[in-house]
Specification:
The structure holds 2 protein chains of 2 kinds. In chain A, 28% of the residues lie in helices and 30% in strands. By secondary structure, chain A is of the alpha/beta class. The longest helix of chain A is centred in the last third of the chain and has 17 residues. Chain A is globular and about 50 Å long. Classes of the chains: A alpha/beta, B alpha/beta.
């Protein structure tokens, strides 16, 4: 069973349907409960997300997810982040409403920054993804495949080896990142047609085969 | 590179697609789900559904077909038509729509755009602008900069606002995208209003979907190149089977535009 973290921030129906099409059993999970319950019930977690970074972190904290997600990744359990779910893994974001820069989960070192002025923001639509290294997520997906993006901010990892893929929009930015059994993508595989389904199926198989 | 998008638009009334849609070698059908899946498989980048139902019962019917479309589609889709409050937006997003398009209600109460964007995020709030070219002022110099006025109620009622000013305002209110329809070009199949599209695309920093006037594949190319639109929306050239989405993409690619080939 794959648990899709439900903290009230996104269209989770399409994520559930995408995972189902990819052959996985998946359900929403709104509170982590005790860590051992989470580990017993779920082979993997998916952290989706749309909307504002600061509000997402506040909701994750309120529902007890901040420590649970850190512990999950520290134990090298499989996690797939999607869109804002990629950005939340990093230390902090420029996407601020007050004076304070919102802090992220701090699982991957680096920051979330806004696209340069002059570009159309949000980047909305299909863009090409170039794998930065061999990874089970990219199996059967040719370099330069198109995926659907909607975002105004992007991640800038401190460590180049955390980048799993890059995409060109004004500059080359990191469109997927991860480490160990953690992988996260800036685009929406659940909205990216056949290529997106392939990626979700790759994740499911990676979870099953370790 | 970010691809230019090709977006078929389907008009829906009381849960059925109106205006016949003909796929090559496939029967005509008015079922939104069936047609949506075919366009998905044909390589459409997104779909827009414009619900032109007038009745009050239509709201429930609409949620039903939106749910069914969401169940089967693997690309994003937008729903527009008669959406007038935050609650209706919430219902549509929960039913599975990726974006909603606001038109008349946004003109009547611009704060709706801000409230919707704050609550659900700019990425799912599209503002549809219907614009009509104003006649040149008597005595205006030839070549004077043209102006366009915003219309509401399906293009029947003038709002009295300048289209470029309204476009900048909805961007400031938090709209994530503009769906721009030229009332002059709509239905003519003589090509998009390139001047209007370019003027709006240059006025804002959010994506602009051009609509109204597509009659052949080169019209799509022109509005994406000369009109500087980010996406081209079209109805009849796809629905009547004259062209497939794949042909449109091939034509755009041949002209050097970045597209996602099916």
């Amino acid at each position: 069973m794959i648990g899709v973290v439900d903290y009230g921030m996104s269209n989770l129906g399409s994520v559930l349907r995408g995972l189902a099409r990819a052959g996985a059993q998946a359900e929403l999970v709104d509170r982590p409960g005790r860590g051992e319950d989470l580990e017993r019930r779920y082979a993997a977690l998916v952290l989706p997300g749309d909307g504002a970074f600061g509000e997402a972190m506040a909701r994750l904290a309120e529902q007890g997810w901040v420590e649970a997600l850190r512990a999950w990744v520290a134990a090298d359990r499989p996690l797939l982040g999607i869109c804002l779910g990629l950005q939340l893994l990093f230390d902090a974001s420029e996407e601020r409403f007050g004076r304070e820069e919102p802090r992220g989960l701090g699982i991957l070192p680096g920051r979330v920054v806004r696209f340069a002025p002059g570009l159309k923001v949000p980047q909305m639509g299909w863009n090409q993804v170039e794998p930065a290294r061999l990874h089970p997520l990219w199996e059967g997906i040719p370099p330069g495949e198109f995926f659907y993006f909607v975002h105004s901010y992007y991640v800038r990892p401190d460590r180049a080896e955390d980048a799993l893929a890059r995409t060109e929009y004004g500059e080359r930015f990191t469109s997927a990142a991860g480490r160990g059994r953690l992988a996260a993508v800036q685009f929406h595989p659940e909205k990216s047609g056949a290529a997106g389904l392939r990626l979700l199926a790759n994740f499911v198989r990676w979870v099953e085969t370790g | 590179m970010l691809a230019k998008r090709v977006i078929p638009c389907l008009d829906v009334r009381d849960g059925r697609v109106v205006k016949g849609v003909h796929f090559v070698n496939l029967r005509d059908a008015g079922d939104p789900v069936e047609l949506a899946v075919r366009y998905d498989q044909a390589g459409a980048d997104e779909l827009v559904f414009l619900d032109i139902s007038a009745s009050h019962e239509a709201r429930a019917t609409r949620l039903d077909w939106v749910r069914a479309v969401a169940q089967h589609l693997t690309i994003p889709f937008t729903v527009g038509g008669g959406i007038s409050d935050v609650e209706a937006i919430r219902e549509l997003l929960l039913a599975g729509a990726d974006k909603v398009s606001l038109n008349t209600a946004a003109v009547q109460d611009p704060s709706l755009v801000r409230r919707a964007a704050e609550r659900f995020g700019s990425q799912c709030i599209v503002v549809a602008i219907d614009a009509r070219r104003l006649a040149a002022e008597p005595g205006a110099a030839p070549g004077a900069v043209p102006r366009w006025e915003v219309f509401t109620h399906g293009g029947r009622r003038p709002a009295g606002w300048d289209a470029l000013e309204w476009a900048r305002r909805v961007e400031a209110l938090g709209a994530g995208e503009i769906l721009l329809t030229s009332m002059d070009a709509d239905g003519t199949q003589a090509g998009y209003d390139l001047e209007l599209t370019r003027a709006v695309a240059q006025a804002v920093r959010i994506p602009v979907i051009a609509s109204g006037g597509a009659g052949n594949l080169d019209h799509l190319r022109a509005v994406l190149q000369e009109g500087e639109a980010d996406a081209a929306l079209a109805a009849s050239i796809f629905h009547d089977g004259r062209h497939t989405v794949a042909e449109a993409k091939a034509h755009l690619a041949a002209a050097g535009l970045p597209v996602r080939l099916p």
